């Protein structure tokens, strides 16, 4: 899994098509069997619901939120829907 969110301004819901985060992406990849699915926004309309990431907490120590996206694999033209994704991770300083 890979999520890149450009223009991050803190906890809120980011809906890529609506917020125009054109440099942002979500990705799901496998090594075996090989597959690489990238997210895309189907429309720039306000009712667009995917892809999104919602940052619920970012206090400098922990980042918590959820996400969902539809992703396309150009190798075999398959589509995957990633739903009910969640994360809660701790940020540590470098050692």
Automatic annotation (TrEMBL):
It comes from the Bacteria. This is Uncharacterized protein. The lineage of its organism: Bacteria, Pseudomonadati, Bacteroidota, Flavobacteriia, Flavobacteriales.
């Amino acid at each position: 899994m890979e999520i890149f969110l450009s223009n991050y301004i803190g906890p809120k819901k980011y809906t890529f098509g609506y917020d125009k985060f054109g440099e942002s992406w979500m990705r799901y990849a496998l090594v075996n069997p090989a597959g690489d699915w990238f997210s895309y926004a189907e429309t720039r309309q306000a009712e667009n619901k995917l892809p999104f990431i919602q940052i619920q907490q970012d206090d400098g120590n922990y980042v918590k939120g959820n996400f969902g996206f539809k992703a396309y694999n150009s190798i075999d033209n398959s589509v995957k829907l990633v739903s009910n994704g969640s994360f809660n991770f701790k940020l540590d300083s470098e050692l």
